[in-house]
Amino acid sequence: MSLREKLLARLLAAADFVSGAELSGALGVSRCAVWKHIEALRDEGYEIAGSPRRGYRLLKVPDALYPPLFSPLVRGKFGRPYHFYPVVSSTNDVAKELARQGAPEGALVVAEEQTGGRGRLGRAWHSPPGGLWFSLVLRPPVSPAATQSLPVLLSLAVTDGVAAFPLPSVEVKWPNDIVYQGKKVGGILVELGAEAEAVHFVVAGIGLNVNITSFPAPLEKTATSLQKIAGEALSRPQLLSAILAAAERYYSCWCREGFAPFREDYERRLCLLGREVEICCGGSVARGTVAGVDAEGRLVLVSPDGTKRRFVGGEVTFKQKPRQTLRPDEDKAEA
Questions:
Q1: How would residue 116 be classed by pLDDT, with cut points 50, 70 and 90?
Q2: Beta strand pairing call for 199-208 and 299-302
Q3: Does an H or E element contain 193, and which?
Q4: Which CATH number is 3-60's, of 3.90.850.10, 2.60.40.10, 3.50.50.60, 1.10.10.10?
Q5: Which residues carry a binding-site annotation for biotin?
Q6: Which CATH superfamily is 67-269 part of?
Q7: What average pLDDT does this structure show over 154-165?
Q8: Which residues, listed in sequence order, are joined to residue 56 by a DSSP beta bridge?
Q9: Is the pLDDT of residue 328 over 60?
Q10: Which residues are annotated as a binding site?
Q11: Does 333 score more than 50 pLDDT?
């Protein structure tokens, strides 16, 4: 924990003013250094009252994900230990390195901003301040093949977390997207450290457009944010806490029973259900109507001749417009 984080933790724990002398002694720095860090916290959006005789008192905190603000909200194993970075290239890359070094299951990497965020198929992922960009280290006792349903499972946790707030329901778009009225709100990228028959670790990266009010021109028609949907900003620490609690609950059952117990619940949230789509997979294109998913999280497609096919992955586009949405070619953008 940095000196500034220690100072913030002291202010958060105090019910009243804390003198500069007390903070100086507790942190082992000069009172001038304390004042400089107080000013830096004010610049970051913390409202801190100051009195020459009484010291400092924290009045209001910004929508921030610093450890002293978020760690008290962690309810279980997911989120411990907590690694926060103002800026990283990719939280998945940081989490994979931590996993290789032996990070325990539940370790969490969170960044305020990603400069090299990515989605499926290596697409760039727009990751400015105001979103939730995080990666979770998992060590499931399953085969590598079984992890194919993990992005599908985790999308349920994300929608559960969003449902904890008073805003319209979001939907899932197989295999790894979170959408609202056809526009992308978030996505999930799962990467493995595995051998042919053994999973050493899984890193589950989740990106969610939360308090973002504008997007680059190429994404304006294909992406939206929870703030735009709700009409007001959401608490990112509270949302992250809710997602992690749901993810831990789902994951625990999934490790024992697989995806089958969640199939019907997933289908209720699936925006593709009953829609005519095209799936591009391995260079070939399949067309048909989405009948749902199977017990392993594979998409079930009914072709025009009635044949059923199952897909582990692929790029899905609508042949007909989804409700209130975009052109079919627009549905491929990552945000």
A1: confident
A2: unpaired
A3: strand 183-194
A4: 1.10.10.10
A5: 90-92, 114, 118-120, 184
A6: Bira Bifunctional Protein; Domain 2 (3.30.930.10)
A7: 96
A8: 18, 50
A9: no
A10: 90-92, 114, 118-120, 184
A11: no
Residue 69: which residues within 8 A CB-CB, separation 6 or more? 8, 12, 61, 237
252/156 Cα distance (integer angstroms): 14
Residue intervals in the chain for CATH 1.10.10.10: 3-60
The one-letter code for the residue type at 292 is G
Q: Which residue has the tokens 């697989």?
A: 258
3-state DSSP assignment of residue 172: strand
CATH level 3 topology of 276-332: SH3 type barrels. (2.30.30)
Cβ atoms of residues 133 and 108 within 8 Å: no
Quickly state the pLDDT bin for 332 (edges 50, 70, 90). very low
- CA distance to 30, 219, 249, per residue, from 253 (Å): 51, 36, 7
Angstrom CA distances, 263 to 228, 247, 268, 313, stand at 30, 16, 9, 16
List all residues 6 or more positions away from 159 whose beta carbon is below 8 Å from its beta carbon.
169, 170, 171, 172, 178, 269
- How many CB atoms sit inside 10 A of residue 89's CB? 15
Domain with CATH 3.30.930.10 in the chain: 67-269
Measured CA to CA, the distance from residue 82 to residue 111 in angstroms comes to 11
Q: In the predicted model, what is the mean pLDDT of residues 235-249? A: 97
Residue predicted with more confidence, 249 or 68: 249
Compute the distance between CA of residue 236 and CA of residue 130 in angstroms, rounded to an integer: 8
What would the pLDDT profile of 266-322 be if each residue is shown by its tens digit?
999 999 999 999 999 878 899 999 999 999 999 999 999 999 999 998 889 987 554
Q: Which of 99, 105, 85, 116 is nearest to 255 (CA)?
A: 105
**In the chain, where does the domain assigned CATH 2.30.30.100 lie?**
276-332
User: Can you spell out the DSSP letters for 199-251?
Assistant: EEEEEEEEEE--S-----GGGTTTB--HHHHHTS---HHHHHHHHHHHHHHHH
Residues 78-91 have a mean pLDDT of 95
pLDDT band at 125 (very low <50, low <70, confident <90, very high): confident
